[in-house]
Amino acid sequence: MNTIDAKTYRDGMSLLPAAVTVVTTDGEAGKGGMTVSAITSVTDTPATLLICINQNSKMNEMLKTNARFVVNILQASNEEISNRMAGFDGSEPSERFDLGEWKEGTLKQPILKNASAAFECEIVKTDEVGTHSVIYGEVKELHTFEKEESPLMYFNRSYQQFRVDETVTP
Fold this sequence. Notes:
The protein is mainly beta. The chain contains three helices and twelve strands, in the order αβββββαβαββββββ. The protein has a single domain, classed as Electron Transport, Fmn-binding Protein, Chain A (Pnp Oxidase, Chain A, Roll). It has a seven-stranded antiparallel β-sheet, with helices on both faces. A three-stranded antiparallel β-sheet has the order 1-11-12, with no helix packed on it. β7 and β8 form a beta hairpin. Pfam families: Flavin_Reduct (PF01613). One of its GO terms (molecular function) is monooxygenase activity.
């Protein structure tokens, strides 16, 4: 059986459209944030999602120590916040909150005020797979914000906008 090399795999995965999110945390290990597109729902009972974080990132240990986080789903107008939280400018995770308006959620975690939605989570499990930590978060609070803006998407290594139609035909 052939093994796919890392570059070929990444090239293929770049063709999978993904919602752009910012994962934030605050607690004993400090406050931090990063851009994450590797997120998925696991189950609705209990409501649980997972995020994948590179084991070498500073946020990896910060998340595990704080044991709580928020997944903020970004809107198309949040591209600058996404870039800042991705650390393209060399900033530390704790220095990335100067863009956007933030509030403290029920679990004392940073929530972006103009996100489409924010999922406040407590970590219930972690797995180490290859270069990444798979972090499972049970959703304790869900904040949705009425916005008419399209979500920020990532596809083929660039930001994209997903057009939202008013009419849905079955």
